[in-house]
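Page 47, continued from p. 46.
Same chain as before, 455 aa.
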Amino acid sequence: MSARPSILVVDDESAILDTVRILLKNEGFDVTTAQGGRAALDALRESPPHVVLTDVRMPGVGGIEILTAARQRDPDTPVILMTAQAELRTAIQAVNEGAFHYIQKPFSNDDLVAICRRAVEHRELKLENRTLRQEIRRRERSQSVKPLGSSKPFAEVLRLAQMVAPTESTVLIEGESGTGKEIIARFIHETSTRAEAPFLSINCGALPESLLESELFGHVKGAFTGAVRDHQGLFAAASGGTFFLDEIGETTPATQVKLLRVLQEREMFPVGGTEPVQVDVRLIAATNRNLEDEMRSGRFRSDLYYRLNVIAIRLPPLRVRKDDIPILGDAFLRRIAAERHELPKAIAGDAADAIMAYDWPGNVRELENALERAATLSRGPEITAATLPGRVTERRPYALVSERPPTSPTLEVVERAYIMWVLQQEGGNKTRAAEVLGIDPSTLHRKLHRYGSEG
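Result:
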């Protein structure tokens, strides 16, 4: 609020307007006057004041209509009614319906100034209370969604996420599949100034290009076969909030061009549309690919990469933050037990040893799935090693690449070797392999087809 609180004075008599304007201006108010109700409605639209002081009875638009318009514009705006004896009943009823106060004509200057000052204080108190409630809710949300982990590598991730959350900066979250990139994105949103608005997400690798563009940007009626009505895209649906683009490295060059326009111009064109639509979202993107390598190979636009990479957060794999495994395991088992309305199971010593010794190539998601399986198969109060997946308890060494790997394997070679190894561990079951890898089954099928290994 400015040093001089603003007040709109409304009356159909110019003499009263001049008298009140001089009085309140001398008392430190920034005064605007409107002669008549229609002029007052225009003034409310142009520059909403901190306080409205209006006569009740005026030709055309009266004080009650002004009260309604002011509170629709800003519910925190105090409205004071000036009333003659004949309109006293109306003024009292208006106070019961939301007017701040009424003052009866003729009034003393001191009474009017005192009521106007109380109105300003009332507004300031309401705003302070709202800000305090929002801060309390923000802190409660941040605690409820705070990612779990206290290891040094993960503490650095949380520190950076907390620093960037209050800003409007675009964030790029990098990390292997299953490390919890969406959890970090949601944490950033819930601790940001956009927390009251939507958080929407989409997996860019789970949809074909044509459908992905329609989901992102929307489409107009008749844009393609089957487009029988206009469709609002997710960018528009997330207005005012945060939009999380997972697996952004899977997007095609054509989609990347459109995403670049959103970041540069804050506008987009729906599929088949000719008029731009303004975009008000904070963008958080995530990838399990090395986008610098993708950029050098020509598969990812460099201008989009630099637009996305304003703040980069690198999530460590679970194998380098093993101190967090007991915390994560306990949280997962409590959640599973709560969903099943039973007591949480403990982890027996042999199971704990196996869990800590395993490298968890599928990261946090694989740990969660393994514990859910163990909790389901365990008949007693504890999870034993026998209830864990065989890959967790086996101690045999394994090789992700051949005995004579290339001196400097490309990212695609390493990725292919890892995917084929996970597929082998899951007995060729592509659905389970996709879960361990933390990717959509359609993405896995597409990669296997590219490798010539689809079967």
